[in-house]
Design brief:
Elements lengths: L12 H6 L5 H16 L18 H23 L11 H6 L8 H21 L8 E4 L2 E4 H23 L1
Helix pairs in contact: 2-5, 2-6, 3-5, 3-6
Length: 168
Amino acid sequence: MRPVKGTYPEFLESYIAKAKGNNLHEALADSTEQLMQTLTLIPDDKGDFAYAEGKWTIKQLLIHISDAERIFAYRLLRFARNDQQQPLAFEEDDYANNCHADKRSLESVIEELIAVRNATASLIESLQPEDYKKPGNTAAGKTTVNAVGFAICGHCNHHISVLRERYL
């Protein structure tokens, strides 16, 4: 079932809206399919391309997807395990500026992203039906395991759309 408005912070709304599917497994399958299809479209020589001054390169964008997915999956895990401590927020630009994308090959960045997605899928597949409703606290407010899972998918979908529209 899709997350119900009011069971997650407002800042997640745009990501949750971009996740397709009636349940988290459908949303993850769709997001993974979109991701894999898009990764095959990136030319080997375009990893350091940014569509405008001050924008991330393709490699930075892909690493951002990996970093954010790791952080959101960590939150999902904590909430699923009834850990009520509030995870810290993160500053995405600090991560992007310190990810050393310029020292990595596009191939290694893509391999990492696929590994992160596979780990996320394994985590989500391990959840039991009762886990999806479990609450958690973020810096932005209360949420649920299900909402965090949908946000992971929608965040990826958002950046895949940006990649297709502005980089490729």
